[in-house]
């Protein structure tokens, strides 16, 4: 079946300004407002991909995460990378790949890095469905303006340098109940209830969440789930430092030289890639699970 992308999606991709709804930011529409017909089918398909990623797009998913693990409430929650707040700001330049990115390209990167999967084709059914859903959530938002709630709230610098021992203690006390004592998440049979935070089933080294500052901001604002802002700033930094100091799948941009990959893609203080932690080098191909991006992909 051929789907029609909502007009807001086409306007954003083309860079056309939509009518200005005024200075006040509005939230996304309720799920009951998804329309009937082919547009509604595309929107519901996108929602299914966001909330049931591995089941809905198995050929492109490579781990046990769902898009909704970071985009909470299926991309609705302010301060948890809400899709409605991001959609109207594309196309946009990204330093990560040194080019203008469409919204579809941005979602493709989520599959590559956060879902540790294969890239769905641009213009294909999966990315069009996610774009249809995000465009529907974003109706009424101002094009080219970041509304309050976009991304993650800024977090204050840590009072003390982050520490693995303190982070391990925070994880054991607060996080392990949902994510497992070994960080591998919780399952009910084959169903992933809560996601793994490291190891082969988690996000890879190219994901934004593998940067300690981004992880700390997300954790501080949103975790434990339903009780955000209950951790201190120091606790959020410490546990993010600990989580991102664990083994996880390889950065798909790795081309055989660990130092070169760090210099080109991780040359920042809050990346632990290619550093020594607990006697091992993070990202070492001998001990690092694989990514799933085919050779020759244009990042």
How would you briefly describe this protein structure?
This is Cytochrome C. By secondary structure, the chain is mainly α.
Protein model, in words:
Helix content is 35%, strand content 6%. The protein is mostly helical and 299 residues long. It folds into 2 domains: 7-137, Orthogonal Bundle (Cytochrome Bc1 Complex, Chain D, domain 2), CATH 1.10.760; 164-281, Cytochrome Bc1 Complex, Chain D, domain 2. The protein has a two-stranded antiparallel sheet.
CATH-assigned homologous superfamily of the largest domain: Cytochrome c-like domain
How many separate domains make up the residues? 2
Mind summarizing the main beta sheet? 2 strands, antiparallel
Percent helix among the residues? 25-40%
- Principal-axes shape call: globular
Low-confidence regions: 1-23
The total strand number stands at 6
Q: What percent strand?
A: 5-15%
- CATH class category of the largest domain: Mainly Alpha
| Secondary-structure element series | HHHHHEEHHHEEHHHEE
Tell me which CATH architecture of the largest domain applies here: Orthogonal Bundle
Q: What would you call the structural class?
A: mainly alpha
Briefly note the CATH topology name of the largest domain: Cytochrome Bc1 Complex, Chain D, domain 2
Mean pLDDT: 92
By DSSP (H or I, 4+ residues per run), the number of helices equals 11
- Measure the end-to-end span: 29 Å
Query: What's the Cα radius of gyration?
Result: 19 Å
InterPro entries: Cyt_c-like_dom, Cyt_c-like_dom_sf, Cytochrome_c-type_DH
Signal peptide: 1-19
Protein name: Cytochrome C
Keywords: Heme, Iron, Metal-binding, Signal
């Amino acid at each position: 079946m051929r789907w029609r992308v909502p007009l807001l999606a086409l306007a954003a991709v083309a860079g056309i300004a939509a009518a200005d709804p005024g200075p006040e930011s509005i939230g996304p529409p309720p799920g009951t407002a998804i329309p009937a017909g082919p547009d509604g089918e595309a929107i519901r398909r996108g929602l299914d991909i966001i909330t049931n990623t591995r089941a809905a797009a198995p050929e492109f998913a490579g781990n046990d995460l769902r898009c909704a693990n970071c985009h909470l409430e299926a991309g609705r929650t302010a301060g948890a990378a809400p899709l409605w707040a991001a959609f109207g700001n594309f196309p946009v330049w990204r330093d990560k790949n040194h080019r203008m990115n469409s919204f579809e390209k941005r979602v493709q990167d989520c599959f590559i890095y956060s879902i540790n999967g294969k890239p769905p084709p641009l213009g294909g059914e999966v990315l069009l469905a996610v774009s249809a859903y995000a465009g529907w959530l974003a109706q009424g938002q101002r094009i080219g303006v970041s509304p309050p709630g976009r991304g993650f709230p800024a977090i204050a610098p840590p009072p003390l340098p982050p520490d693995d021992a303190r982070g391990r203690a925070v994880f054991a006390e607060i996080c392990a109940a949902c994510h497992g004592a070994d960080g591998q998440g919780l399952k009910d049979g084959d169903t992933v209830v809560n996601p793994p935070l490291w190891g082969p089933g988690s996000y890879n080294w190219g994901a934004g969440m593998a940067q300690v500052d981004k992880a700390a901001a997300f954790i501080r604002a949103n975790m434990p789930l339903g009780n955000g802002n209950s951790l201190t700033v120091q606790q959020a930094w410490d546990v993010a430092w600990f989580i991102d100091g664990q083994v996880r799948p390889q950065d798909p941009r790795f081309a055989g030289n660990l130092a070169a990959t760090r210099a080109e893609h991780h040359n920042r203080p809050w990346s632990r890639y290619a550093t020594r932690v607990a006697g091992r080098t993070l990202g070492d191909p001998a001990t690092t699970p694989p990514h799933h991006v085919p050779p020759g992909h244009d990042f």
